[in-house]
Amino acid sequence: MKKLEGRVAVITGGSSGIGLATARRFVEEGARVVITGRREKALQETAASIQGDVTAVRGDVSRLEDLDRLYAIVKEKHGHMDILFANAGAGTIAPLAAATEAHFDQTFDVNVKGLFFTVQKALPLFKDGGSIILTSSVANVLGVPGFSAYAASKAAVRNFARAWTLELKDRNIRVNAMSPGPIDTPALATTTGLTPEQAEQAAAQFASQVPMGRRGKAEEIAAAVTFLAPDESSYITGVDLAVDGGMAQV
Ligand code: NAD
């Protein structure tokens, strides 16, 4: 029996990295998936590369009108949804002394405001309970030099899971955060503005702090999300599931 047979799942940031690996895994498990992200071409290529029921909808989670359009399409195509993986995130490096207002605003616009409204605007589509998984980060409990705004935004995500668990319990909607450690995805190279060599160096530096001694794979995160999404985890809500090779424990 497939874990997500017939379930309707929406994944933000679904054309790359963790979101893409999760879209693939959800489809393997029988879900009907809607992915959203900002890059139309990458989204369409992703949807075409996955054998199954995948719909790609271009959209920026920090733009409320894009979220309205996304959920209008979900409603039209599926009538409801069962699972939301609110995963899109932004994380540029910016030490305190050098960070600009634009950097700060962009980080919070996507990771905090964008995620808040991604969830709020999905609520009318949850008809019969459901599961919401929020991508936070191991940075939500660590001091990470150069990433303080990012870490603070991910701590907010962790706290959203706590409050929304209580707000949504009567609708039988579970809300969990999921916090990756350093994962091999395009994120470091594409979002930090580092050269490929600097990005590799930064990734190696993060990985050296992981007790398991390596970076994680996007598929290992997808496996954790595929545990939190279905009823298999029916008594788990409000947690922050670290998928970080033990990094948060150091
Ligand atoms: P990625 O760059 O491979 O993918 C990020 C995805 O999010 C892309 O599809 C991108 O288009 C999308 N996205 C970014 N901003 C968006 C916006 N405003 N609206 C819609 N889509 C947007 O990165 P990833 O590593 O897969 O990151 C996914 C999530 O995991 C992010 O929230 C990130 O903060 C978090 N995370 C990543 C790591 C890591 O080491 N890779 C560690 C901890 C947390």
Automatic annotation (TrEMBL):
Keywords: Oxidoreductase. Residues 7-181 form the Ketoreductase domain. Its EC number is 1.1.1.47. The keyword DNA-binding does not apply. One of its GO terms (molecular function) is glucose 1-dehydrogenase [NAD(P)+] activity. InterPro entries: KR_dom, NAD(P)-bd_dom_sf, SDR_fam. GO terms for biological process: fatty acid biosynthetic process. It comes from the Bacteria. Belongs to the short-chain dehydrogenases/reductases (SDR) family. This is Glucose 1-dehydrogenase. It comes from Plastoroseomonas arctica.
